[in-house]
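[Q] Does anyone have a clean structure-token version of this?
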Amino acid sequence: MNQDREARRQALLGFLRTIQKAGRPVESLSDTDRLVASGLIDSLAILQIVTYLETTYGIDFSIRGVSPEELGSIGGILDLIEQEKK
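[A] Here you go.
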């Protein structure tokens, strides 16, 4: 994993800690675990993730649309950020 991706991963984990449900630490998830299915967040938290990505990375979801698949895992979110940064 390159340094930029790892830095974005750590920032994302920090954000997820602020919205996670009690009892499931972020650190227990792999990059491929489904965030909602794992119980870390509820489906409404996806909107908070969208807002975080718009604010932090300037991703315009009104243009690109929201894909639950892309936002469903830590790895998917990191991939989306990398695609938008190109």
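[Q] Thanks! Anything notable?
[A] The chain has one domain: 3-85.
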